Every structure is written in structure tokens, then in C-alpha cells.
Amino acid sequence: MCGIVGYVGADQALPLLVEGMERLEYRGYDSAGVAIIENGKIATARKAGRLDALIDEVERRDLPGTIGIGHTRWATHGGPTDENAHPHVDCSGTIALVHNGIIENHDVLRARLSREGHRFASATDTEVAAHLIESIIHERSCSLREAVLEAVDVLEGAFALVCISSDEPDRIVVARQEPPIIVGAADGIGLVASDIPALLKHTRDVIPLDNRQVAEVLRGAVTVFDFEGNEVEPPVVHVEWDMEAAEKGGYEDFMLKEIFEQPEVVRNTLRGRVDLGGRVRLDEVHWDDETLQGITKVVVVACGTSFHAGMAAKHSIEHYTRIPVELDLASEFRYRDPVLDETCLVIGIAQSGETADTLAAIRYAKEMGASVVAITNVVGSSITRDADAVLFTHAGPEIGVAATKTFLAQLVALNLFALYLGQQRLSMEPQKVAETLAAMEALPDQVEEVLLLEDEVRRAAKRYADARDFIFIGRGVGTAVALEGALKLKEISYIHAEGYPAGELKHGAIALLEPGVPVVAVMTGAKLYDKMLANVEEVRARGAEVILVAPRGDERARALADQLLEVPSTKPLLSPILDTIPLQLLAYFITKEKGLPPDKPRNLAKSVTVE
Ligand code: F6R
Q1: Which residue ranges have their beta carbon within 6 Å of ligand 1?
Q2: Which of 47, 163, 447, 477 could pair with 263 as two cysteines, CB 3.0-4.6 Å apart?
Q3: CA–CA–CA angle 1, 160, 68 (5° rounding)
Q4: CA–CA gap between residue 481 and residue 500 (Å, rounded)
Q5: Rounded to 5 degrees, what angle do the CA atoms 349, 350, 351 make?
Q6: Residue 38's pLDDT band (boundaries 50, 70, 90)?
Q7: Predicted pLDDT at 572
Q8: What sign does the dihedral 319-483-549-508 (CA atoms) show?
């Protein structure tokens, strides 16, 4: 998500940190900052906005010193402001740290540390780590490394932490629990970065820290420990990639990288939102139970891929809460004179948070007295200012124009929200909530399993890349997947593709079927399975090529498929989270077969800010 750099050596740290941060700009960020030690003191500079704003700031001030850390932030907790930009410092200004990830128990720790007299200067989860380390050093009179080793046992969630202390101005201490972080040493210098591009200028021999490891990085030397404090011998990896390949993490395109980031994205979007008692915890949603009980109708408004997430969410919300759900394309919504009042809850979905039609739709809904919750991936985006509550997806910046990982994150967030409504309105048995959450927690590993289909999908793409038309069919939540599969394919490969509810096929679109036309059928949840099989029979009877996305091990599906893409089973309402992935891969590989650029399809923009 965010970008981290660290340097300790003989040269001035500032230009090297800025250069490293520039190398990470491609990832997207909303603020940036550095901390440098000179003469036993830490100086920081932090700025919201582009790196240029930080560069202007550091050019105005003198920040000498040969050890420092830098960070480009993609906001998750607390908006993209100067105060929330990293590095964060402790009360005494002795420790500075930067962080990637999400500290789940930040609120509990903040309350505890505040009671102990610590003063907080930001709204971030990260700052608690600085104060926690300060309090440990104060209590134990220990080194920075010892304090970090103790802090990692207290911090819950995901973190790559990179810390410096003016009391130990010769070292950077790094800790990893999940988000990747790389360390390295070369002639008289020590280096840290979240991504390889930031290091390539200095070294090609790097040490990617393993999960639950701490490193001490000195001038020309790195020592690595496990979380128990035992020294370990880390493997050194030689990087062959050029800069462009390094930016894409070795993948050919950002889109493919983002598809492969999805296990982590699902994990991050769930993080901190499921408590140990098997209940949904949404700290961001602060309506009281009486207001939630009073909801008579939910209206979902969105565009494009986000609309498809809303289409799947309609099923979950109605099933879990028994509240009727209307689904509207945001561009149509306010022109149809919709019936809205204060008992309506409107859900606006926009990964960018800037889609003009979606913003206009939720503003209209607010004028009509409805409550609005926004689902977005961008902290500080316009939609967050207009909504009454915001549920963030934690997908990290998405660079490919076609939405992939943000779609999966939306599906996860919307299912959590639907469960939350069911839980708070008591329309769901606690046992059912807990069971569904357990199924959701299994999803990141299942997403990983689906990604193993890569080679099979690549072969299918070769086979069908020359098709002129594609039809995608599904039923129930599978219809949303079919529509999304068709959208992905048409927007990047420029092949004409239609997504259809399978039962609707015979009312018109079946006329398009002839021998050789590829039909992708999404075989979802149990109760519609037999009906889907019957629809696939209809398709086969017209000589079409059948590509099935089906539950693993189903012989009936195998018998009908020209190309079978098997996915693990989950609860039917969660199945879009798995079923979409082979279709994303199919669109991607067909586009590559055609020699087209998947990251930058013609005529499309990542953020659609005009009506
Ligand atoms: C498709 C795609 C678009 C967006 C649509 C809405 O891959 O990216 O269809 O989904 O423009 O964008 P957001 O979610 O930002 O409102």
C-alpha cells in the first residue's frame, strides 16, 4: 500500500530518501514525509499531496543528516493531511517511525497510552506504535531493537514498521508482520524499502524480511532476528529485474499484479472487522440500533464495476436483513424521481470516490433526507465528505484502469455491511453471522487457490482470443459476476461481450448463438445449480463453446464444459468473490494475446469525474 524508504550511510540522507520515494510514486499516494537524525535530534517534514509539496518544504528548510526514513502514504486511518502523514514521532521526539499496514488494536492502545499521559498529534493507527515503543524504552531502559521486539507482541494486525531513534543514530530498526519490507547493505550503507525499485540504484542484493522478523540495519551490515529475539541467517536475493519490471513487482502489467494481490486485499478489507466472538465490528458506522431498525428500504447507487458489486450486494442485504433493496445506475438515479425519505439508507459505491454520477446521486439522496453510506477505496475522496458514514475497502492504490482488486474488496466490504445490518437488526441468528464470517475468513486462502488457475486460463485465452463476440451468463449473484466478466473483457480486449442472466437468454440473446461462439457460464450457489445446468444445455445445443466456472469436482459440469475452470466452494452469497477471478484472468490473457495494453485501455479513465 504505502511506500517506505530508509537510508543510513555516509552521504546526506535527504536526496537519497526523496529519490527512493520518487521511485515508489507509481504506486499512488496522498501524502509524504521524511525524518532525519542530525546532532542527536530528529527533524521531520511531512506534507499532504504530491511529493513536490514535500520537496518544496525540504528545500526551504535545511535537513542535514546521514540517517533517515521516508514514507509515501495511502491513507487508511485518518485523512490525507500533513498531521497524518508519516513519519510519526513519540512525545519526546526521540523516536520516529513509518508504517505500512493496519494496526487493528490501535484504539485500545491509544486509550491506554493516553491514560498514561502520552499526547497524540494525529488520527492514525501508526502513531500508537511510536508511543508504545517510547513507553517500553522508558519502562525498561532498553535499546530500540529490544523495545520493537516487545512492541510487536502488543501490536495486532499487519505492520511493516521502520524506526529510528536519536539515542541510537547509527541504525534503523525494522519489523515485519505481513506487509513486505526489504532490507539491504552495501559498501558502508544500510537500506530499507517496501519495494525493490527504491533500492535498485544502490544494490541488487536484497533481503526480503520474512513474516515475524525484525532487522537492525547499520552502515554496511544487517542483522535479522525472529520475533522471539533469536538471530537468524536470512537468504540474500539477487534481483535481475529492470526498473520497469521492478515497479510491477516482476509482473508484466499492473493489472496482473493487482489480480494477484487479491488474497491480501481480501484479508486487509476483513482486518479488524470480525471480533473474536464471531460478530461484525464496523467502527466506522456509528448509527444507533434504533436508526438501523427504522430502515425501510436500501438503495444502492454506483457505476460500472461498482454497480456489479452493488448487484451482488442486493442479494446479501435482502437475504440477511429482509429489507428491500433497489439497485440503480448512478447516472440514471436522480432522473427517475426516486421515492426516498429519512427511513431510506443509500449505499454509494465508488472505488475512486470521485465518480461524478455517484456523487450527484448521493447528494440528491441526502437532500431527500436519506442516510448515506459510502464504500470507497480512497480516504479523503469527495464521496467521504458527502456521506454520513464511510466503509473503506483496503485494496491499496489500483493503477490498472480496469477495476479488479477494488471490485473484490467492494464485495467483501458489502457482505460485511450486509451482515452488520442483519446482526444489529437481529434479523440474523448470531450463529449464522458467526458461520458466515468464518466462511469469509477462509476467503483469502481460497482466492489464492483460484489464482492457481492462471495457466489453464492462459490456455483458454489462446483458444478464444480471436472470437468476435462473447456471452457471459449466470443466475442470482452469478449474474453480477457474468456482467462483470463481460465488462472486463470488452473494456480491455475490445471484443464485444454481453453479460446476461442465464434465464433471460432464451428471451432474445440466444439468437446470437452459433457454433464457435464462446459462452462463459458462472455456475453459482446450490439452489440455482440445476437451472444453470439446464441453461448450459441450451447453449450447447446451439453449438456454442462452453467455458464453465464451476465448483471443484462436479462431474455434471465437467461433462458439459469445453473448458472447465474449477473454483473452491464457499457460501453461495460469497461466491462472486471467487468466481470473478478466472474472468479477470481471462480478460487479461485474451488482451495480451491480442497484443493490447491491459493497463491503459483506449477511451477509459480511472476516475470518471464528468457526468
Ligand atoms: C471497469 C471500471 C469502471 C468503473 C466505473 C466506476 O473496470 O473500472 O467501470 O467501475 O467507472 O468507477 P468508481 O468505482 O470509481 O465509481
Answers
A1: 303-306, 350-352, 355, 358, 402-403, 487, 491, 608
A2: 447
A3: 95
A4: 10
A5: 125
A6: very high
A7: 95
A8: positive
The one catalytic residue in 297, 366, 490, 606 is 606
Distance CA 300, CA 524 (A): 22
Angle between helices 405-424 and 262-270 (to 10 degrees): 20
Average pLDDT over residues 552-577: 94
Lowest mean pLDDT among 241-245, 265-269, 280-284, 565-569: 241-245
- Which ranges constitute the DSSP H helices of 46-121? 51-60, 106-115
Is the pLDDT reported for residue 105 higher than 90?
A: yes
Q: DSSP class of residue 194?
A: S
Ligand 1 atom closest to Cα of residue 355? 16
Written in H, E and C, the secondary structure of 13-65 is HHHHHHHHHHHCHHHCCCEEEEEEEECCEEEEEEEECCHHHHHHHHHHCCCCC
Per-residue confidence (pLDDT) for residue 527, from 0 to 100: 74
Predicted model pTM: 0.86
Q: Per-residue pLDDT for 525 more than 70?
A: no
Nearest to 205 by CA among 218, 220, 216: 220
Cβ 97 vs Cβ 69: under 8 Å:
yes
Q: Measured between alpha carbons, how far is 378 from 28 in angstroms, rounded to an integer?
A: 11
27 pLDDT above the threshold of 80? no
| Residues with Cβ within 8 Å of residue 274, at least 6 apart in sequence | 280, 281, 437, 440, 441
Distance 248 CA to ligand 1 centre (A): 22
pLDDT at 526: 60
Q: Domains in the chain, start-ordered, CATH in brackets?
A: 3-176 (3.60.20.10), 256-441 (3.40.50.10490), 449-593 (3.40.50.10490)
Cis omega (within 30 of 0) for bond into 87: yes
Atom of ligand 1 nearest to the CA of 353: 15
Phi, then psi, of 301 in degrees rounded to 5: -125, 135
Residue 397 has pLDDT above 90, yes or no: no
pLDDT number for residue 178: 87
CA distances from 373 to 347, 392, 396, 414 (A): 5, 10, 20, 11
Tell me the CA distances in angstroms from 229 to 96, 157, 163, 280, one per residue in order.
22, 20, 17, 35
For residue 325, pLDDT over 90 is answered with yes
pLDDT of amino acid 605: 76
Predicted confidence at residue 95, as pLDDT, reads 98
The distance of Cα 457 from the centroid of its chain, to the nearest Å, equals: 23
Please indicate whether residue 2 is annotated as part of the active site.
yes
Least confident segment among 131-140, 380-389, 455-464: 380-389
Please identify which residue in the block is written with the cell numbers 513487482: 249
Q: Please identify which of the residues 2, 163, 303, 344 carries the catalytic annotation.
A: 2
Is 432 catalytic? The answer is no
